Amino acid sequence: MLAVNYSTMRDNLKSYCDKASDESETIIVTRKNEKNVVLLSLEQFNALTKAARNAEYLAKLDRSFDQLEAGLGKPHELAEVDE
């Protein structure tokens, strides 16, 4: 992980973009008033968002299992679907 200030990033944007995409480097761009941003590859971003979605889904499953264990489930007939 690298930290660079805004001016350095601006002056060397291609180089830092290459580091992010080719070397999977995460780059923190420091700015005034601590309004920092992060530059990372699309591949890293997609992995992070996928992990967040998976965590949400697993939490939803956990809540569902807790509800079933608490007796809050409702039995129903399965609907048959004709092809």
Q: Specify the structural class.
A: alpha+beta
CATH superfamily of the largest domain: YefM-like domain
How are the strands of the biggest sheet laid out side by side? 1-2-3
CATH architecture of the largest domain: 3-Layer(aba) Sandwich
Helix and strand succession? EHHEEH
- By DSSP, the count of extended strands is 3
Strand content: 5-15%
Low-confidence stretches: none
CATH C-level label of the largest domain:
Alpha Beta
List the helices and strands and how they pair.
Layout lengths: L1 E4 H6 L1 H10 L4 E4 L6 E3 L2 H28 L14
Parallel strand pairs: 1-2
Antiparallel strand pairs: 2-3
What keywords describe this structure?
single chain, 83 residues, 53% helix, alpha+beta, YefM-like fold, 3-stranded mixed β-sheet, elongated
Concise overview:
The chain is α+β, with helices and mostly antiparallel strands and about 80 residues long. It has 3 helices and 3 strands. A 3-stranded mixed β-sheet has the order 1-2-3.
